[in-house]
Structure formats: structure tokens, C-alpha cells
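Justification of computing resources. Each target in the renewal requires a structure prediction run like the one illustrated here; the chain below, 553 residues long, is used simply to show the kind of job we budget for.
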Amino acid sequence: MESWATLLDVVILLLGALIFGVLFERLRQSAIVGYLVAGILLGPGALNWIGSKDEVTILAELGVALLLFTVGLEFSFSHLRLLGWAALGGGAVQVVATVGIAALICLAVGVAPGQAVALGAMIALSSTACVLRVLADRAESESIHGRSALGILLVQDIAVIPLVILITTLGGGGTAQTAGIEIVRAAVGIALLALGFLAICNYLLPRLLDADALAKNRELAIILAVVTCLGASWAAHAIKLSPAIGAFVAGMLLAESPFATQIRADLSALRTLFVALFFTSMGMLADPRWVWNHWPLVIATVGAIVLGKSVIIWIVARGFGQTHRNAIATGICLAQIGEFSTVLAGIAVSPRFKVIEPGQFQLVISTVLITLLLTSYLVALAPRFGHRVEQMLLPRIRRRDAHVDTSSREPNVGHCVVVGFGPAGRQVVEALRQSTIDVVVVDQNRRMIEEARSQGVPAHVGDASRPEVLHKLDVVTARYVVVTIPDHRASQDIVRQVRAVAPQATVVARARYHRYAGEFASAGAHSVIDEEWEIGRLLGLQIRRYLDEPHQQ
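Resulting C-alpha cells:
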């Protein structure tokens, strides 16, 4: 009967996740927040419709393992390389700096050293799921601050495993020598797990299973994934490692196996189940009465984290070449603590490790919930706030960032200024190089500018939305200005500034989304290339070509 009671608990949890997930989606919040709220209401701290604390702990640990297994399946070394040094370096510096600064602040208020480091690790992580969802809804995924946020978030996700190892090491207690032994033991254990699953995924499974059979029978791929995840979690637990580490290693190695593509496709629906189970089980560990009794501490912690992370990421992003506007916007977007912070908190408070106290755990869970609720408002505020702060700093920025050396050249006249040297900008420059018109490129990305210069194209680093940059580029005497960047808000600002500085120039702008094409015309663009409409037209022409020439199919 006890097994059936546990099954009923799972059903109640998932039903609550469904109801509150739908509710929060309608409120334009992340469904993840709904899952957390469902767990809070259903758990022992509120309605108490779920079983004992032991069941809650088991469900939470299982949820962590399932979630990190799906993260491991999506892990790609090739994708990591494409992020570039700015994202990788900036993300790594942000994680280390946030852990260190947060730990020092915790020490200053009387928290024990091990607990301070653990809390710093939790504060360092932001919410990948919520931030990317809100950026996509606002069509800002391709903006400069959106791409910067994505790079930092991916590095944070990768950092989860080292941070899990750190917390489990802190849970070992003892001296620095003991901690060193624990780290070595964890590294050896992970290496053994990796070698074992590498052999199984690449040598044993291909011999026992037929890839064609997996492709024909979709259930087999799902069963393989679940068995691998749970087996890895059990193996990690057996050698006294966190089950979450075992699940992540298994997912990462399975992602490189011959079955990876099929498993990723078939596990997408199951991933939703894993995520819902994890967040509702974590929500059950929260205590609303504790929040009510300690609300000044909770509010102060939320304020300190939002402000502190914004400033840290602002400074880090500036160090890696971002403008103040985009660096501030990136910091505000990532000013929450996210879903993987609850992963670390669940491990740290578990009876096995006992790194943090129950009260500290409640503070982390409460802060996660509140900052996730604030995320949609923070992301909406980020570009405008970044612009306002930059305007306050404008006199100093003009002297430093707007510098273009014009002392040894004649002013350009009748030329074309191309804003942005991404794929679209490169195509424009290539087309113009076949003509007699001079071309000048401006971009905020130094790597893009170096690439343009290597091709013999005059190019300058600068923000084309600033009048002083446009003057230095001789836009006043330009014949054409082509705006190719995908960020629609930044593009519209540039169009307005160009029309104000050089009313005689013909402005051609790229509209990444059809719904914003009209706004470009209102901003003053003479011609707007509607990317979605143009792609649809080309797709229609291509299919017509196939219809007109059926023998070529």
C-alpha cells in the first residue's frame, strides 16, 4: 500500500504542476515558477497533501538526477567552442567572482566558512530557462545583451557540476587535507564512471542493440535513456558521489553515442516531466510560514542579490568589451538566482552532506522563487535602464569609446556606411565591393572589425546609435547607410540617429521580425527588408521551381 501512496503523491504533484504551470503561463510568467508554487502549496509547509519528509527528499534527489541527465544530453563541446572567448571567459569570471564576493559578504555577517562558500555558489547561478524564455518572447534573443546573457548562462550551466563537487566536498567536513582527499576521490570516481559508461555506450550497447531497431521502435530509446539515467545515479550513490553527477556524466556520454540523435528526439516530452517533477519536489521543501516570519531578511537578500549580481556582471561584461548599455542590460537580465541554485541547495541541505542549515535552505528557496517572479520585469527593464545609465556616463564615454582616428585621412564623401559585420553585413560589403562606391563598416564587436580589416575593408569599433560615432564615420556626407544588425530596438535607434545627423543619406534597414517592419519605416528608413517575408517569398519561389520542373526531383 505504501508504494501506491507514493504513486498518488507523484500524481498529485504533476497535477499541481499542470494547473499552476498553465496559470503562470497565462500571467506571462515562466511555468517553472508555477511548478515551484505548486510544490510549496502541496508540500508539508502548507496543505500537506504529500507524504513524509523522506518521500519529499527522495523525489527531490530523483528530480535533480533526471534534470541533470537531460542537461548532459544537450551538452556539446562543439557548441561550447562556438561561444567564443568573450562568453566563455566572461561566464567563468562571473561565476568565480560572484562565488567569492558572495562568500565574503556571508562571512562578514557571521556565516560559517563552508556555508558561505556554498551559498556563494548558489547565488552565482542565474535562470537559463526563465531568461531565455522572456528574451524570446520580447524578440531580444538576437540583441547584443541577449547573446551576451546566453553565453554567460551556458557557462553557468556547465559550472553546475564543478559546484556540485565543491558542495559535496564541503559536506565531507574536516581539514583542508580532508577536503583535498575528497576532491581527489570525487575526481577518481567521476573518471571511473565516465570510463564505464564510455565503454557501455560505445562498445557494449551497439553490439547488443540495433540502431535501426531503436529508430523503428521509439519506446526502446526512451527505455534506454531512463535505464542509463537511473543506473548512473545508483552507481554514483554506490561509490559515495552525488547521484546528480552520475546522471550528468551518463547524459553527456550518451550524447556522444550512436543513439544520441534518436534519444534527444524521443526524450523531449519526457524532459518536461523531469523538469516538472524536480521543481515541484523542490517547492515542497519550502516553508511559507518561515518566509512570513523572516520577511525582512528575505526582502533584504533579494535586493542584495539583484543589485550585487547586476553590478558584478556589468563590470565583467565591460572587461570583455561590452558597452555600458549592453553590459548593464546583461547584468539586469541575469540578476536572479535560478533553477540550478535549488539543485545545489537540495544537495547542500540533504542529510548526507548537511553543508547548510534548514533556515539557510529556506532563504535560498524563497529568494529563488521571488527573483524568478521578478525576471520578466527585470528583462523588460534592462535595455531602457542600460541606456539611461549610459546617458549619465556619456561625457566620459564619448572621449573613450567614440574615438576614430581621422587625423591622417581625407573625409569620405558619397560613400556607404554598413552597420554590423555579421553574415548579413558581409553579404552587403561583398556586393558593394563589386561597385565603385567606397564602403566603411562599423561594429561593436572587435573580432568582427579585425576580420573586416583583414579583408581590406575600412572598419571601426563603435556604437552607431551615438551621433558622435556617426560624425566620425562621415555619415554627414554618406550616400547610403545600411543597418544589418538583428536587434530591432538598437536598429531603430540607429535609423533615427542617422536621419537626424544625415537627412540626405538613403537608409536601408533589416527587420528581423515582420511585426517590427512598420516601426522601421516610422523611424525613418527609406527601405526595409522584412526578413521573415523575404524568406517566405524565397521558399515559395523554390517550391514553385520544383513544381515547374518535376523531373528534377
